[in-house]
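Reopening: Rhomboid family intramembrane serine protease still failing for me.
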Amino acid sequence: MQLDAVAPVTFGLIAVNVIVFVIETLAGGSTSLPVALRFGAMTVRDLQRGQWWRLFTSMFVHFGFVHLICNMMSLYYLGEVLEQSMGSSIMGGSQFVLVVYICAGLLGNLLTWAVQQGQRQYNVVSAGASGAICGLLGVYVAMLMVPVLRDYMNVQGIIANVVLCLAPGMTNKSINMWAHLGGLIAGFLLGMGYFTVLFGR
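Support: Ran it again with your exact input. Result attached.
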């Protein structure tokens, strides 16, 4: 794979997340739930009130610096290589990364909404880019299914990252496992569709 010089979507998404975080901090603190909700975090109650835009905005809101920096490091690690290496005449890597990020984030939030509504967790506040980022990881999993790409992949590394994506949510109730799982599934399906078009498989 030949890498280009830049990854504009990856760095653009990081910039948007950082800018929102800085504004959150100046507006009262990124760990404040009222501030998070004001900037677009999601609850089932708000979605029931018709505030469906929170399914999108919540993927750019973070709780504290550690939450932000962990997600942005993952976004950089996964997004830059994917964006630079997946160029094609059908859909360039930049467009593909953006589509995966948005679609995976939305599916992760939709799954979160469905589960929390079923469990009557109407006021649990959800936010963060991890569902969208797990979508990028899902693309790497899809790459393992394509022989022409598999030789370039670190299988053990991808499996380890999938475990790290899902396992914390099973033991730490503050981590939204459903957003991670929904994002991972969305990224895998988008990746499989993308590679089927590219390689006829």
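The longest helix spans residues 93-118. If you still see a failure, please send the error message rather than a screenshot.
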